[in-house]
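Q: Hi! First time doing this. I have a protein sequence and I read that you can turn it into a structure. Is that right? Here it is:
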Amino acid sequence: MRTTTLALMALMLGGTLAGGCNPHDARDIARIADLEAQLRDAQGERTRLDTRISEIEGQNAEMVARLRALGQSVEDLESARATLESERTALRGTLDETERALEELRERERQQQARLATFRAMLERFRAMIDAGRLRVRIVRNRMVVELPDNVLFDSGDSELREQGQATLAEVATVLRTIDGRQFQVAGHTDDVPIHSRRFPSNWELSTARAVSVARFLLEQGIPTERISAAGYAESQPIDMTGTPEGRARNRRIEIQLVPNLDELPDLSSLVGERGETSGH
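A: Yes, that's right. Below is the predicted 3D structure, encoded as structure tokens:
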């Protein structure tokens, strides 16, 4: 619009000059001067407008650059946020697993303390018999074992309980009955001197028969059937390797072992497949 105005003003000025007007006509001179002033003002305004347009274009270019940079920053921020959320989720899972493992350890510790309290109580109940030399209490492969010498329980080469042996086992059964939820295995052991008789062709038969005799007596004393088992080991598990008469006497023994409960054993289910096959085969 300003361009059109400038053109009209130039046309009018040119027309006035070409019309041969009287230069002494004050009105024409004043009109010309006024038009020239308006033309200069219009040219100055156009210059200012051109400058302003250039400034705006420069600002627009700067704004576009900023918007592009901002857009990239937003993308980087979103990417960083997604990464942080992923790491937070992974950390939360790790913390949950750690808390579960810690709780399992605490539960095992509680169970262990309960077992230790039970074993300490048993040991104190057996104290008088231990001091009298009628039995020993040992820890074998993390199991508590009540060990009774064979000469307290049996005559040489025999599997029938002596009266003294029955009295000793009756006291032992009194203590065992106070232990809930435990199984007991009676194990018979001999020395390395072989036996050959009609009733006992070898030490295997003798050790097994003695273990069965003790197990039956404990059943008669009120130990539930499902909590008692018996096994004979002959001379295969000696506790004294000296070969002396005293050492052989120590090897001739009956052991009553406290069998670990299933919840005390490691979980091996992952080693067995659905068809009962060992994993990894």
